[in-house]
Each structure stands twice: as structure tokens, then as C-alpha cells.
Amino acid sequence: MDWNNITHIFFDLDHTLWDFERNSALAFRDIFEKHEIELDLEAFQKIYKPINFKYWELYRNNSVSKEALRYGRLKDSFDSLQFEATDATINLLAEDYIHYLPNNNHLLEGSLEVLDYLFPKYQLHIITNGFEEVQQRKMKSSGIWPYFSTITTSEEAGVKKPHPQIFEKALSKSRALPAESVMIGDNLEADIIGAHQFGLRTIFLNSEKEQPAVEFPQIQKLKELRNYL
């Protein structure tokens, strides 16, 4: 496949460039300490990770609101661990989590190196389902903000990936054509299939070594992007 006509690269943010799992664990460590929540962090993270994933799927499909996601993922995690917390405490923790999360700035292995490599050659962009007020803070605190020409969030577009309208919005902002664009992300449905159906090339960051149902170009580490771009 010829990649020479690519001029625009669209990245997902969480789990693709920004190390969500590591930064999330640090945020919970800080807020549990602040509010004297006596839970083993490792045990909590083990329960929280799949519950959070489930809620993001529901949010992507418009089955829960942003507020319900923020409350429900904590409530369900505490219930699973048989940890009693009032609604007021859960809402306070949910609010503090969003505040603390962008304070941590760990990126996935190779993120800065690959951005340094791509930046002189391509226009770089972000398309994210994450919340508007948090994503920009994440990018600024982690130092990757200057690399990107445009950032398109689902709240701005009014729809979430994989809806075609968010890709239409992102390409319109960037003045890019689908045929000269590639989408890189870790979520097969939202990032890869969604972008592919809108006419973009795609590269699946298969860091969890999942077996995709459809064959797309895929990498396990960001540094492997050099094989394509």
C-alpha cells in the first residue's frame, strides 16, 4: 500500500498517546489519600478498569450521560468491592478525579519520539471522545499541545466516534481530504472502523494484542509507525 500521498495524521488521545491507565491510577492515589478512602489501589484499579471501559462504551452509544458515566463507574466499582460510600462522597470523588487527572502527564512509550519524527512531514491532529475541558489540559500538561494543528472533541462535534459526523468535522477543520489522511487509534470500533468507513486510511494501535475482526494495518508500539509514514 502506498502511503506517499498522506499529508494529515489524526490521532486518538487516551490509550494512544496519553497513558490513561498510569495517569488514572496516580489521580486515584491522590484523591483517595485526600479523602481518606481506605482501599487498596491495585485491587480498586483491577475492578475499575473494565467497569470504566463498559461505561465509555455506553457513553459512546449515547446510553448514559457524561454525569452518569462519572458517577456510575465509581459507584459500581465501590459496590463490587463492598466499600460503602455515600452519593455525596462519590460525586465529590468523581469531581476531584476529573480535576486531578490532567495533573499527571505520562505518555505512552515512544509518543514524543514519534511526534518529533512526524511533525516536520505531516499536519497532526487529534480526534477524541474525551471531555472537552479535560483533553486540552492533558495535552498541555504532557507537552504535546504544540504538535497539533487541530483538536476535535465529541462534545464539539455533537457526536462521538465512530459517528461519521465527527470525522467530517475534524477533516473540515483541518482542510484535509479523506484520501490524504490516516487515523491512528487503539479502539477498533471507534477509531479504526469509524475512520475507515469515512474513507480514511487507518493504523490500529493493537497494544493489547487483540485479534481484530477485520484486517487493518496494525502496530503494537508507536515507534512502528515509521514502517508506514
UniProtKB/TrEMBL annotation:
Q: Might you give the EC number(s) for this enzyme?
A: 3.8.1.2
Per the UniProt record, one Pfam family is HAD_2
A GO molecular function term, named singly, is: 5'-nucleotidase activity
Keywords from the UniProt entry: Hydrolase
Q: Which NCBIfam families match?
A: HAD-SF-IA-v1, HAD-SF-IA-v3, YjjG_YfnB
Which protein are we looking at? 2-haloalkanoic acid dehalogenase
Species this protein is from = Christiangramia flava JLT2011
